[in-house]
Amino acid sequence: MAISLRLPAEIEARLDRLAELTGRSKTYYAIEAISRHLDDLEDLYVAEHRMNEIRAGRSETIGLDEVISKYEFQFPALFTFAINTIGTWSERYPVSIGIAGPSNQLWHRLITPEAWRALDCEAGRLMGITQEGLSDHGTSAALLCRELNQVFEGQKLLTNNYAQVAMMHHIFKSSGQNMTFRALHVESVMGQEISQELVNSLVLVDKTYKADENAKILRDAIVLQFS
Are 37 and 132 within one domain? Predict the structure, then answer.
């Protein structure tokens, strides 16, 4: 589908400079920018719509007892995960993974990228990661997968991002291993309505760029949602 956009002069000038510097088209970078931020926009505006539906009495929440009985979901065994990546939208590499569990347990590992790219300084600062840190303390996908399988065998690890479910599977596929646990989107465990309620609650939470902190924020939000 073709669309026409009237860009502010400053944005168009920046696109011109970037395209000239890299040899790529302005269209490529416009698509890249939209793709990177569309998930956030969807989360924000869908959440606002759902919140209005709740306030107007057109939508109902579901209690914890029903969640447990319907989806066989137990909070004491709740694990959530988040994965940080670098690279372009079409070619991304995992650089860190964080998992949050019961009793404020946090599990965090740096991942040596499959193919080295320059780590953007600002992105690295936000994620708390440096290229030197990845080189010195990062673990390979193969070692990471073995450790994940040993620690979380038989568990369900949840995220609210389908791309992160796909990335977890990609990490294991690249290492030639099978998962002994399940990486799932919260919607597949708790259903669409409850998943959307969770999105609503996360809109009000300050964002972080560290994988283990994001995993804990998600776990806390799930528990709070049904407290």
Answer: no
In terms of DSSP H, where are the helices of 130-227? Answer: 131-137, 141-152, 162-175, 186-190, 192-203, 211-225
- Clarify whether residues 27 and 88 are in a common domain: no
Q: Which amino acid is at 10?
A: E
Q: What is the phi-psi region of residue 144: left when phi exceeds 0, alpha when psi lies from -120 to 50, beta otherwise?
A: alpha
Q: Are residues 128 and 169 in the same domain?
A: yes
pLDDT at 68 over 50: no
pLDDT of 151 above 50: yes
Structural contact between residues 76 and 102, judged by C-beta atoms closer than 8 angstroms: yes
| 112 and 213 housed in the same domain | yes
Whether 152 is covered by a domain: the verdict is yes
- Work out the pLDDT band at 74, boundaries 50, 70, 90: very low
Do 73 and 126 lie in one domain? The reply is yes
* Cβ density class 145-162: b for 16+ within 10 Å, e for less: beebeeebeebbbbbbbe
Tally the domains of the chain.
2
Question: What distance in Å separates the CA atoms of residue 40 and residue 105, rounded to the nearest whole number?
Answer: 27
Residue span of the structural domain in which 192 resides? 64-225
Using pLDDT thresholds of 50, 70 and 90, give the confidence band for residue 79.
Answer: very high
